[in-house]
TrEMBL record:
Top-rank lineage group of the source organism: Bacteria
InterPro entries per record: aa-tRNA-synth_Ic (IPR002305), Rossmann-like_a/b/a_fold (IPR014729), Trp-tRNA-ligase (IPR002306), Trp-tRNA_synthetase (IPR050203)
Presence of the UniProt keyword Protein biosynthesis in the record: yes
Organism of derivation: Pseudomonas triclosanedens
Protein name per Swiss-Prot or TrEMBL: Tryptophan--tRNA ligase
């Protein structure tokens, strides 16, 4: 069986909640578009996750999934460079979720911060359901089913990735342990050959005794190069670097991008519930209208009052869209009241319109070709299934669920 290079595998997911906005583009999607050329990427439209909160109104999901797929494609997520798929079309996620549910302590789920937070925020809904409580575990299954080492998400998701790590650790501890682990490890090391075996042992010691992350990386790279290792030995040697069990499910890490954060039109977080978004499909006229209405530094009541960009949400947008020359012009002009706020907004309007034009053109092409979108998602889901099945075979085996 093919072994997986987890350090090169990326998984991320997005709930199908309708049209995507600029915040998604700058915060997440641009990063995905870049990552797809550097890693083996799986991008999932997580329709089951939508059900955890929208179970009482499922009529829109189908359309939302399609709209979101088109937005992804339009911004450049490429079906040939990455695998984009619909979560529910890969039922293996559900099997892993079930198996993990057996080892997941209730208290771990109850203390995930988003659990109480969202329940309070969505207090008009009854979210004391089994599915909603299990949401982070479903997310863990989404990640672990691909043995993805890297998860590009925003800070609101860090707790969920951390939770996935804890579940992976528990799984490895419960099912990756072997009575004769040490012995098997020593045999595996001897199979590396004298020189490589020595190097592995000393790198492991440097990592374990001095916490030298570079030694860990080098040891991992060394193992990766070993073509002749069996899968079992590989898992043992990877596991031995960090503990005393096989690494059946590697622990995922978040992968953060360093883009400046894009607030909503009013300076708060951009979100549908705040009504402060620009969606990727907004027309040039809508963009102009929305930016023109953006609030500015409250101290600038009159055109002649000087302002301070630090107190203005428009400035945050300049940080994303404008070059240094333009930014200096804003700083200068704002503080000296040399420019008016509408002047200040004009280059922003133009940049956003320019950015959106090609995206919207591509989106139209896909809108006109629903069959193409359907087949991209079907093929992606099939590819994802193959990878997911490989993991499940090992998971079932490790848990003792093999009957042949
Ligand atoms: N919980 C994520 C969100 O609300 C969506 C998600 C589901 C996800 N499964 C995932 C993100 C796996 C990353 C990896 O945004
Ligand atoms: Fe904000 Fe620009 Fe107006 Fe200054 S000039 S308050 S930065 S919009």
């Amino acid at each position: 069986m093919a072994s997986v290079d987890s350090q090169r595998r990326v998984l991320s997911g997005m709930r199908p909640t309708g049209r995507l906005y600029l915040g998604h583009y700058h915060g997440v999607l641009q990063n995905w578009v870049k990552l797809q050329h550097e890693y083996e990427c799986f991008f999932s439209i997580v329709d089951w996750h939508a059900l955890t909160t929208e179970y009482d109104d499922t009529g829109g999901i189908r359309q939302h999934v399609r709209d979101m797929a088109i937005d992804w494609l339009a911004v450049g997520v490429s079906p040939s460079a990455s695998t984009m798929f619909i979560q529910s079309q890969v039922p293996e996620h559900a099997e892993l979720h079930l198996l993990l549910s057996m080892i997941c302590p209730l208290s771990w789920l109850e203390r995930v911060p988003t659990y109480k937070e969202l329940q309070e925020k969505l207090s008009h809904k009854d979210l004391s359901t089994y599915g909603f409580l299990g949401y982070p575990l479903l997310q863990a299954a989404d990640i672990l089913i691909y043995r993805a080492g890297l998860v590009p998400v925003g800070s609101d998701q860090f707790a969920h990735v951390e939770f996935s790590r804890e579940i992976a650790r528990r799984f490895n501890h419960l099912y990756g342990g072997e009575d004769d682990f040490e012995e098997r490890v020593q045999t595996a090391i001897s199979r590396l050959g004298k020189k490589t075996g020595k190097l592995y042992t000393s790198l492991r010691r440097t990592w374990q005794e001095q916490g030298d992350g570079e030694a860990l990386e080098t040891a991992r790279a060394l193992l990766k190069e070993q073509q002749s290792l069996t899968l079992g030995d590989r898992e043992r040697l990877f596991g031995y670097l960090e503990g005393s069990s096989r690494l059946l499910l590697p622990e995922p890490q978040t992968l953060t991008s360093h883009e400046p954060k894009m607030p909503g039109l009013d300076g708060q977080k951009m979100s549908k519930s705040h009504g402060n978004t620009i969606v990727l499909r907004d027309s040039p006229a809508e963009v102009e209208e929305k930016i023109s209405r953006m609030p500015t530094d409250p101290a600038r009541v009159h055109r002649n009052d000087p302002g301070d960009p630090a107190r203005c949400p428009v400035w945050q947008w300049h940080l994303i869209y404008s070059d240094e020359g333009c930014r200096n012009w804003v700083q200068e002009g704002c503080r000296s009241a040399g420019i008016g706020c509408l002047d200040c907004k004009r280059p922003l309007i133009a940049s956003i319109q320019q950015e959106l034009a090609p995206i919207q053109e591509r989106a139209l092409d896909y809108e006109d070709n629903p069959e193409l979108v359907r087949s991209i998602l079907a093929e992606g889901s099939e590819r994802a299934r193959e990878a997911a099945r490989e993991t499940l075979v090992e998971v079932r085996q490790a848990m003792g669920l093999t009957y042949r």
